[in-house]
Design goal:
CATH topology of the largest domain in chain B: Aminopeptidase
Strand content of chain B: 15-25%
Helix content of chain A: 25-40%
Order of helices and strands of chain A: HEEHEEHE
Shape of chain B: globular
CATH class of the largest domain in chain B: Alpha Beta
Radius of gyration of chain A: 25 Å
Structural class of chain A: alpha+beta
Shape of chain A: elongated
Number of helices of chain A: 3
Number of domains of chain A: 2
Number of strands of chain A: 5
Largest sheet of chain A: 3 strands, mixed
Number of strands of chain B: 15
Distance between the termini of chain B: 62 Å
Largest interface: A-B, 47 and 49 residues
Structural class of chain B: alpha/beta
Oligomer: heterodimer
Strand content of chain A: 15-25%
Largest sheet of chain B: 6 strands, mixed
Chain lengths: 199, 423
């Protein structure tokens, strides 16, 4: 009788333990899964929640260098720009890419096709900046030099201005793409090639 | 300020995919089931027909076709111009199973029927060939060797008459089911010594093709057309003057995926890979030719790993073994070119020198770039940007047959010097 009682208690204990284990497991799953998503959401929402842009105060700006192609030679030439300071490197990097798309204020040549939009930009802990362009970046027939200029104007500009950026991965319409126009491999993150910059 | 803030998807759309995934999973299972049903019924239908297996292997001075019949059957051989007919008088129609053919002397294998005779038609690559045939495997296998007839005195060394060759033949045929093309199983341990064999392959890759037009000139010239014209001229020069076989990644206006181009080189165990392109630049004045070899997007750590590979590149001289660990194979395939960077650089230098001297085009030197088409090629490989199609002056030249000839000449001379310097 006593024994039976004990075993019943045992069963209850085991069941409780199992129940707790399941709850813990479920919580862990929920925690990790939603954790990942929240991160993404936070990153996405970051740019839109910044109406508190530090107006035109001089402290609210940051000097950056953009690299453009040039009619003079085959190198990428620097151009200074002021951008509004952002809350994060990713935010500022996105602004820099938008400036690159707008093109040179001087006589330098934009390496990115007109109509291209930046869709998203984020920087991973490993130092890879993922830059997601709209389809226009790959819309027109292009030669090797055009592709190289387009890719490395982005890669070198980001790596030059942002310490955390070690490599740049280019996406098109949110997905990986083989090449822009049949030449340069987009399947791997790019390491900056500062030898392409005019000094 | 940020015009694309509006295009950022709402949070709810981000959570959706998991549910979708579950739906997709059941849908996929159903799809898979119906697919396998169709597949197996198709399989049983095909299995009902007796199979006639055709295999082709290249040897030093001949190509061998092996036909494996389901049972010993009488046959006769009829030669007609550059076709060899194997006529089998039988009411049966066989399910002809032929691997893709990449061979020096055999172009294609097909079949037809005529009046109670099943005919296997073997098309020779060159008009004149001489053939020798014998049977093995209790007359179930018919072996036909194709020689070039131009040489009346065949080299004495490898004389593959029936008896000595026979023991070698039966083994590969029955055991190989889905072996990758052009990797003759008859050479399991391919010694390094046979690298400078009689005939090796140069793979020419005319850039772009089909809907992938490449760069476009002001007057409408397309990169894909120019690259094909030059490559065909280069092919003719090599075949006329060098003891190399030429394989093209495309010989007409065709869309060929970039990986397939590298695969064609590797499956043919190419000695050299030349990708021909015409350049386009945002600069209107850009002109001249450039020869590229692959650059790797390598950080320090990766660079060390690659340096190791480069110094231990012997493994890449062997054909890839696609069995075993797929993931490792994929990584190796991705990095295949990294083992050949030194040779590729040398080849690029020599080709570029020739382009400079012969054409007098502006020297833009050799360069490194991460070109997709080069990454998987397991042999010295370069990408030649002949001239700028985006420059109106050079566009006019690029479409001119005379200029195309000159370019082909220049690349050809570069190849000759490279081959001479690196036996």
């Amino acid at each position: 009788m006593k024994k039976k009682k004990k075993s019943a208690a045992d069963i209850r204990r085991v069941m409780l333990a199992a129940f707790l284990a399941i709850v813990v497991l479920a919580l862990a799953v929920v925690f990790f899964r939603s954790g990942g998503q929240q991160q993404i959401i936070a990153k996405r929402e970051a740019p839109s929640e910044q109406p508190r842009r530090p107006a035109s105060g001089p402290a609210g700006f940051r000097d950056v260098i953009l690299f453009f192609a040039s009619e003079d030679d085959n190198l990428l030439h620097p151009e200074e720009r002021k951008i509004p300071a952002g809350a994060s490197a990713a935010e500022e990097a996105a602004e820099v890419v938008r400036e690159l798309i707008k093109g040179s204020n001087g006589s330098l040549l934009s390496a990115l096709p007109a109509g291209t939009r930046l869709r998203r930009l984020f920087i991973t802990k490993e130092g890879i900046a993922y830059v997601d362009f709209s389809r226009e970046i790959a819309s027109q027939p292009s030669g090797s030099s055009e592709e190289l200029a387009a890719v490395y104007s982005v890669v070198n500009t980001l790596a030059y201005n942002f310490k955390p950026v070690k490599k740049v991965f280019i996406l098109v319409e949110g997905a990986e793409r083989e090449t822009l126009g049949g030449h340069v491999n987009l399947g791997e993150a790019f390491v900056p090639q500062f030898s392409l910059d005019a000094r | 300020m940020s015009p694309d803030a509006g295009s950022i998807p709402a949070a709810s759309t981000i959570l959706l995919p998991r549910e979708k995934l579950r739906d997709a999973r059941t849908a996929r299972t159903r799809q898979w089931l119906s697919f396998s049903l169709v597949f197996f019924s198709a399989l049983s239908w095909v299995a009902a027909q007796p199979t006639l297996k055709a295999q082709v292997q290249d040897f030093e001075n001949y190509s061998r076709a092996i036909l494996t019949l389901p049972s010993p059957l009488p046959f006769s051989l009829v030669k007609d111009d550059n076709f060899l007919q194997v006529r089998i008088p039988t009411g049966n129609t066989f399910n002809l199973k032929a691997e893709p053919i990449r061979s020096r002397f055999i172009k294609s294998i097909s079949w037809n029927r005529s009046g109670g005779v099943y005919i296997v038609v073997i098309e020779g690559r060159h008009g004149r060939f001489r053939h020798e045939s014998f049977q093995v495997e209790k007359r179930r296998q018919l072996v036909i060797d194709f020689y070039e007839q131009a040489e009346p005195a065949p080299s004495a060394a490898p004389k593959p008459v029936a008896p000595p060759a026979a023991p070698e033949v039966p083994k590969p045929a029955p055991s190989r089911e889905e072996a990758p093309p052009a990797q003759p199983a008859a050479q399991p341990a391919r010694p390094e010594a046979d690298v400078p064999r009689g005939v090796r392959t140069i793979v020419l890759d005319p850039g772009h093709g089909g809907i992938e037009v490449g760069a476009k000139g002001k007057f409408g010239a397309l990169e894909k057309d120019v690259t094909l014209a030059i490559s065909l001229r280069l092919k003719a020069l090599i075949e006329k003057n060098l003891a190399y076989r030429v394989e093209m990644t495309r010989d007409r206006d065709l869309d060929v995926p970039l990986e397939n181009r590298a695969a064609i080189a590797n499956n043919n165990r190419a000695a050299l890979f030349i990708s021909v392109h015409a350049n386009g630049s945002p600069r209107r004045k850009a002109k001249g030719s450039e020869t590229f070899f692959l650059s790797l997007n390598a950080t320090d750590e990766e660079a060390r790993r690659l340096a190791y590979l480069e110094n231990n590149s012997a493994q890449f001289d062997k054909p890839m073994d696609t069995s075993g660990n797929d993931e490792i194979q994929m990584i190796l395939w991705d990095m295949a070119q990294s083992a050949y960077l030194k040779q590729s650089q040398r080849l690029a230098e020599i080709v570029q020198e020739e382009l400079n001297t012969l054409l007098g085009t502006a020297n833009r030197g050799i360069k490194q770039a991460p070109f997709k088409v080069l990454t998987g090629v397991a042999c010295p490989a370069v990408l030649v940007e002949v001239a700028f199609i985006s420059n109106p002056d050079e566009e006019k030249e690029l479409v001119a047959p005379g200029f195309q000839d000159n370019v082909a000449q220049a690349i050809y001379r570069g190849l000759v010097s490279y081959i001479r310097l690196s036996p």
